[in-house]
Amino acid sequence: MNIDEQNNFHSGYVSIIGRPNVGKSTLLNAVLGEKIAIVSPKPQTTRNKIVGIKNLPGAQIIFMDTPGIHKPKNKLGETMVRIALDAFSEVDIILFMVEPQGPESGDIAIIHQLKKTRYPVFLLINKIDTVKKHELLILIDRYKNLYPFQEIIPVSALKQDGIAVLLKKICDTVPVGPKYYPEELITDQLERFMASEIVREKIMRMTEQELPYSVAVEVQKWEEREDGLIMISCNIYIERESQKAIIIGKKGALLKAVGSAARIEMEKLLNAKIFLELWVKVKKHWRDDPQLLKELGYK
Predict the structure, then answer these.
(1) Could you report the per-residue pLDDT of 28-81, keeping only the tens digit for each?
(2) In angstroms, rounded to a whole number, what is the distance separating the alpha carbons of residues 49 and 65?
(3) Residue 4: CA atoms inside 13 Å, Cβ hemisphere, count?
């Protein structure tokens, strides 16, 4: 990059915040054109801050997908909310994502937090394909009365509507700055973390109700052989013996289905053949154990 290009290059950090299940991870994946954040129909799927890097002509935008802000019921929930609130600081733009209804009480609570920040805030109204135009206009007026958003951008993360407009507005707002990451990089997440998240996503999609929130996944072994095969062994932690039978399924059917789906996605991600082992273990009250949460990467 020559001096003129450096002087005209824009870069910045952008956090994506909102209530659980409003589509933050779907938006990140849509912006990047790659799946780096796991998604499921269940709230609180994202537990850690996920960083995605978007390289554009003359700009590099670093997006931070965060856990949904909610009332925590355990130490894990408290950690997730703290991670999300930390994203209010040291960024160039905050993207506040909502659904095309409300505002809900959770949205109002987040707006109260936003009033303490000095960074520009864009309101993203997601899932606009599910409402009529006049309903959307009414909602925009409601939010305008609650906070002085720098931009209000209707989007459909799932259908990728409004993404180009969003990227242009971000590029117009972030300052002149350096290229923080190499151009070929789209995330700073370690392969081990992404592998564990893929397994957790498949469990969330294949199980029902409360069980997914009691599940954690830890990569215990990662061995790359000379013939190119990657051998991965994961522990799946749950809180009660009764949950172990659910995860394993009748004659091991559910665990086998989780492993098969996860292996296929890992092979696409890593561009290599994968041998995947899954072990189910009971760790009572792990969501309230600060030391175990730290070991599992929830810091």
Answers:
(1) 889 988 776 656 554 444 545 567 889 999 999 989 876 655 454 555 555 555
(2) 6
(3) 0
Sequence spans of domains, the chain:
3-173, 191-295
pLDDT, one tens digit per residue, over 204-236 is: 888 865 565 678 888 888 888 888 898 999 999
d(CA 63, CA 299): 19
Topology of domain 191-295, per CATH? GMP Synthetase; Chain A, domain 3 (3.30.300)
Single-letter code of the amino acid located at 265:
E
Instruction: Give the integer Cα–Cα distance in Å for 270 and 286.
Output: 30
Query: CATH top-level class for 3-173?
Result: alpha beta
| Consecutive H or E run containing 60 | strand 59-65
Burial of residue 131, with CB atoms counted within 10 A of its CB: 0-12 exposed, 13-18 middle, 19 or more buried: middle
What does DSSP assign to residue 128?
A: G
